Structure formats: structure tokens, C-alpha cells
Amino acid sequence: MENDTLSICSATINVTCWDLRVRELNANDAVAKTPIIAMMILLMVVGLTGNILVLFVYGKRRNKKSATHFIILLAIMDLIACAIIHPYVIYKLFHPHNQTWDITCKFFEFFIHWNLSLSGLSLLLIAIDRYLAICHPLKYLKFDDHVSKGIALITACSFAFSLPLFEFYGSAIYEIKTDNVILYAYRCDPKVKYQTSFILAAFAALIMGFFLVEVVAMVILYWKVAVVAYRRRNTIRPQLTASSSVASIYPSTSREPIELSNTYHTNNDFLTVPRFENSRKHTFPNKRNQFVGSSNSNMFSCAQTTRIHVKPSSTVHDDNSTTESTTGNAEMSRTNNFESRLKAAKILFCVTAVLFLSWMPFFIVRLTVTTFGEILKEDTNIKRVFGSFIHHLFYLNNAANPII
């Protein structure tokens, strides 16, 4: 009997009633979700500014290594997310009950999923890159040549993996009962026919499974990087101290090469022998290049008028000192290269950690709702706001990455 007294408001029946009710509900929800809206606006502004600066700084670098390419890739994805996805999400927060656009819903949900899955695969590829750079430098040289192919592959895979969203999502209708009125509202959500279907549940489980596999793989790879870095640091420090001592005793070996200008006088003209730099022996390397005569003389003697001009700044060191200093410089170069790769690994690990921390609450809540749905069935404003906050928390990584 109670249903006989209820009036119906929808976008096609009693449009005036529907419009007034929807406006009122949207305004109330927007007020309740003001902190979330403010958070999304802040993340959008910070993300736009930060990622533009990252692209400007790293784009000007001439010698781009694989880590630089990955940082640029993440910055591009985050910039697109902040410029396109964030405004769409903010608009949805202001209009939670009249999302009647169907095609727009499909496109943006596909784009959101593509962006997020590409971010996850990019971070996994970055973890592999850093693992090879620190733990297997020789294999890393081969892997570095195929970075662009790897980026193209994960882009295609994430694109294909996101295509089902076009079918699953749309403008879904649901009922809201208020003041003896049944309001048919619309929101961008899985279609009604898929909301309780096995295929959508399987797809969601597949997404969660891929995410957990990515997280476990990245944890293992970065753990191995940390172990190798710790051992390498303990090995490098004593060698670095010894190399510094050698460099302090022979400071000019690596900076001032030996420069000899040897001029020989023959019967008709002068002969200048090319200068030798960093030569361990003070004799010519072979007899073949020791004498070069003029076209008019085949035999001549250099012993009588040999003139050797040595620049005042030139210094000739002993063989042992040169060898020790060269070894020290090579060790210093390897150490600096290792430290540079390790620094990039630390930065990219922090990016991975932020993505993991921002996504975990979402998956925990989803798993809890799926497992204990009856316990959490009661709907309150606090639960709705908290659930909305968890669902928007993973957008944090779009703004946090450039800060890191």
C-alpha cells in the first residue's frame, strides 16, 4: 500500500520533479564530499605544475639514459591524468546522481583504467631496469637498447587489457527513495546486467591478481637491489680510500699528460715526431716510425743535432705511479656510475612505494565489502564519504611522482 502513494521522478517521466530532486541531492553530496573535492583540486594543480617542470628539466638533457626515459614516461602519463582525468572526476563529484552521459562514461573509464594499468606495468619495467643496472651491469647494456620496445609493449598490453571497460561501463540507473518519491538517478558505473555477473567479478579478480603479482615482483627486485647495493658499498669504501691516497700523492698524472715535441734536423729540412701522451716508455714504440726522412735523403743521422722540446708544464712520472693512479681513476669512475644508478633506483622505488600505498586501501576495502557485504550493508553519510575518499586516494600518485 505504501508504494501506491509514491510518485516517480525520472529523466523521462516527470522531468521537472527529477531535475529539482537531483539538484538537491547533488548539492548535499557535494557539501559532504568537500574535503575530497578539495583534495582532487589540490592534486590536479600540484600534478600539472610538477609534471610540466619534470618534463622541462629532463627533456633538456642530451644524454638520456633508460632511467631518464622512464621518468619522462611517468611524467607524461601523470600530466595527462591531471589534465584530463582529474577534471572529469571532480565534475563527477559535483554531479553524482545525474551522470546520464553514456559514451563519455565509457571513454573516461577506459582511459582511467588504461592510465592506471600502464603506470603499474611501467613501474614493473622500471624495477627490472634498476635490477639489471645494479645487479647485472653487462645484461643491463643489452636491456638498455630495448627500452623503447619494452615501453611500446606495455602500452599495447595495457590498452588491450582495458578494452573490456567499453562493454562493462555505462550510465547505470538506480533508485533513490526520498519523501514519498522514487527518484531514478544515473551514475557512471558498471551496467546493471553486469553488476552481479560472474564475468565482471572474474575481470575484477584478474585485475587484483595482476596488481598483487606486480607488487610482489617489484618487492623482490628492489630487495635484491638493496642487498647488492649494501654489499657493494662495503666493498667500495676501502678501495676508494686507497685510491684517494694514490691520487693525492700523484695529483697531476690524470690531468697533465706527457707532451713531448721532438725535432730532428736532417741535411735538408726539419722533422717533427708526433707527441706521445701518457707513454710509459720514453723511447719510440718501434723502429718503423722512428725516422721519417725527406724526399731527397735516404740515410741521415739524428745524433748530432737532436732537439727535444718539453713543455714546462709537462711532468714525466714513473710507470708504477701511473698504473696505480689509472687504476684509482677507473675505480672512481665505476663508483660514480654505480652511485648514479643507485640514486635513480632510490627515486623510482619511492615512486613505486607511493603507488602501492595509494592503491592498497582501495583493494582492502573492495575485498572487505566482497567478503563481509552483509555486515557493511548499512548505508550512512560517513561510510559514503569514506568510501569515496578511498576510491579517489590512488590519484595521489599523479601529483606525488614529480615531488619525489
How are the elements arranged and paired?
Layout: E1 7-9, H1 15-32, H2 34-59, H3 66-94, H4 103-135, H5 137-144, H6 147-162, H7 165-168, E2 169-178, E3 181-190, H8 192-195, H9 198-249, E4 260-265, E5 270-273, E6 307-310, H10 319-371, H11 381-392, H12 396-403
Helix pairs in contact: 2-3, 2-12, 3-4, 3-12, 4-5, 4-6, 4-9, 4-10, 9-10, 10-12
GO molecular function, one term: G protein-coupled receptor activity
Region (Disordered): 312-334
Transmembrane segments: 36-58, 70-91, 111-132, 153-174, 194-223, 347-369
Name its key features:
single chain; 404 residues; mainly alpha; Rhopdopsin 7-helix transmembrane proteins; 3-stranded mixed sheet; 3-stranded antiparallel sheet; 12 helices; 9% strand; GPCR_Rhodpsn; transducer; transmembrane helix; membrane
